[in-house]
Amino acid sequence: MNDNGSAQAALAARFEEHRPRLNAVAYRMLGSLSESEDAVQEAWLRLSRTAGGPDSDEVRNLGGWLTTVVGRICLDLLRSRQSRREDSLDATAQAAWESHVPDPVVSRLDAVDPEQEVLLADSVGLALLVVLDTLAPAERLALVLHDMFAVPFDEIAPVVERSAAATRQLASRARRRVQGSAPAPETDVAKQREVVEAWMAATRAGDFEALLELLDPDVVLRADTGELSSGLSKLVRGAATVAGQAAMFAKLAEHQYMVLVNGLPGLVAAPGGEVVSLGSFTVVDGRIVEIDIIADRERLRSLGVPAAGA
Questions:
Q1: Which of 4, 22, 217, 265 is in Cβ range 3.0-4.6 Å of 193 for a Cys bridge?
Q2: Are residues 172 and 202 in the same domain?
Q3: Interval 15-65: pLDDT, tens
Q4: Are residues 41 and 156 in the same domain?
Q5: Which one-letter DSSP state was computed for residue 5?
Q6: pTM of the model
Q7: Are 107 and 72 members of one domain?
Q8: What pLDDT shows up at residue 128?
Q9: What DSSP string describes 188-240?
Q10: Do 175 and 143 meet the contact criterion of CB atoms below 8 Å apart?
């Protein structure tokens, strides 16, 4: 191997050391597993094109350099996404945006692999990702990089093309919105599992009163159904309405089993072995405050949902 080949191999090895953290950054920025992988791969391509790596000062902090590059790539993707959303005047398309559920990380109930543990550090639940989706792209970048990955504001500022002080204000504004909208979920897996098991039992029995007892009065149910047309409303609020929706699907509940969704117990429905829905629950003080459902079969196939008993 020539010197250039050796340098590229060494650079690739160093990049791989940072990949798990970069995946975690991109996932919080984009809420999409495939787009996150693409963003990280693009960061590698940019690094490899430098023919030996960034300047010497940046090489000493390669992790910081790569984090900034991934942040810039994600910012561009978010701005493109926002532009498409603003250009869409169709009511159906707007409803789809409102009911969109970010990609969950799904694993067997008894195991989360090491890469998933890195990806899910700091309890990044779907409820938080949903709220992050409502932020302006620059706000999301400032909040994610500073609050979740301890990147200094003076390093974030050039990416968002603002001063460090203005970048601090972006993060502060985003932080207030998140704290006011994203419930802090129950992190005790055993307690959450107890609530989800009770929900599964009540749904199977079609027990409306038992479902009501498990729901916060202001619970939100969000259902991302893709092209599917069903009796499931895409965005509903209030315990009575959500319990009524759940009771409609008592037969489907007979085919449910539990998995981990972003590290916490959730439910898969798979009649005849075909996965038709995945549900994530945000539990606070023993009650369900948010249910996020993916019933888009194309998305479900891409998520690699483990089979029952797997």
A1: 265
A2: no
A3: 999 999 999 999 999 999 999 999 999 999 998 887 555 664 556 688 999
A4: yes
A5: H
A6: 0.84
A7: yes
A8: 87
A9: -HHHHHHHHHHHHHHHHHT-HHHHHHHEEEEEEEEEE-TT---S--SEEESHH
A10: yes
Cα 70 to Cα 25: distance, rounded to the nearest angstrom:
8
> How is the chain split among helix, strand and coil, in percent rounded to 5?
60, 15, 30
Domain shared by 112 and 214, yes or no = no
CATH of the domain at 272: 3.10.450.50
Q: Do 143 and 74 touch, CB atoms closer than 8 A? A: no
Q: What span, in angstroms and rounded, lies between the C-alpha atoms of 278 and 102? A: 12
Number of neighbouring beta carbons within 10 Å of residue 220:
19
Residue 117: give the domain boundaries: 3-181
In angstroms, the CA 111 to CA 90 distance is 42
177 and 239 share one domain: no
Q: Confidence band (pLDDT; 50, 70, 90) for 227?
A: low
Q: Is residue 207 part of a domain?
A: yes
Buried b (16+ CB within 10 A) or exposed e, 279-306: bbbbbeeebbbbbbbbbbbebbeebebb
Structural domain count, the chain: 2
Q: What is the mean pLDDT of residues 134-150?
A: 95
Distance CA 149, CA 71 (A): 11
pLDDT at 8 over 60: yes
Neighbouring C-beta atoms of residue 201, cutoff 10 Å? 13
The answer to the question of residue 310 being in a domain is no
Amino acid at 296: D
Residue 265 domain flag: yes
Out of 133, 152, 181, a domain closes at: 181
Cβ–Cβ < 8 Å for 284, 186? yes
Top-confidence range, 229-238, 283-292, 298-307: 283-292
